[in-house]
Amino acid sequence: MVLESLITPFKAENRPGRLIFLGFLYSTVAIFLSLWIFKTYSSLIMVFLTVMACIPLLYNTIKMEEKKDLQDMGERWLLKEHGKALYAFMALFIGIALSCTLWYVVLPSDTVSVLFETQTATIQNINPHLTANAVGGLNSFVRIFLNNIKVLIFCILFSFLYGSGAIFILTWNSSVIGAAMGNFIRSNLAYYSDFVGFEKTAQYFQVISIGLLKYVIHGIPEILAYFVAGLAGGIISVAVIRHDFGTRKFEHILLDSADLLLLSIFLLFISGLLEVYVTPVIF
Questions:
Q1: Tens digits of per-residue pLDDT, 195-228?
Q2: How far apart are CA 255 and CA 258, in angstroms?
Q3: Enclosing domain of residue 235
Q4: Could you read off the pLDDT of 151-193 as tens digits, one per residue?
Q5: Residue 13 placed within a domain
Q6: Does residue 1 lie within any of the structural domains?
Q7: Per the structure, how many domains does the chain have?
Q8: 56 touches 4 (CB < 8 A)
Q9: Which conformational region is residue 84 in: left (phi greater than 0), alpha (psi within -120 to 50 degrees), or beta?
């Protein structure tokens, strides 16, 4: 009752920057608790503990967004209002990803291998499929886009069945992205570890910046798409719980959710293009 009570949905939407710190805090507490109590299974336990801290905030935010749907606002105004919640969710995600990145870099290698064991296996399964040539790029784009659509469906389903259930998938993705950024930074810092003085410091900052940028380019629109889909599923779930089913207002909610789903698919399309055709060229 402590961590999840640090901020209200209203404050979260109006001051989303605070959620970067809270996401970092939630994830950090979860990481050290999982290492302390369930070290062997810490790569998954830390995700569950982070989710436990995030669920009250996300569920109450989704309920607040569903109430906006009942006010007969125009679709453009509704999307603008939902944007506040999405900014808050993204800030929370960024905080979790930054926490995973930091602890991947600074913790001892034997601890990191246990803490991010499942995330590392996931990254290793993804990387061989990415190619830079044109034909391979097209195949990779189709594969990545279809896989992301599958995750999108899971987000909708989890949100509909569990209200804010999509937060599990999103927290898992943030831990994977955090591990990927941490691995890139850690590997390159080791390469430059022979340098001394200002040159060494400059290389450190350069590696960290590149490591973050490499995954942020396509990661932001991809995760935003999942949040949009999760919000759509959550809004429908809350509407059904409130017995709005079958009313004119429920039709308005379905229309709003359909707009959100179309937006999420468009964001996934853009994310796939960036991941396959832009990121490999830059890095």
A1: 544 455 545 445 555 555 666 777 788 888 888 8
A2: 5
A3: 8-282
A4: 888 888 887 777 667 788 788 888 888 888 888 777 776 665 5
A5: yes
A6: no
A7: 1
A8: yes
A9: alpha
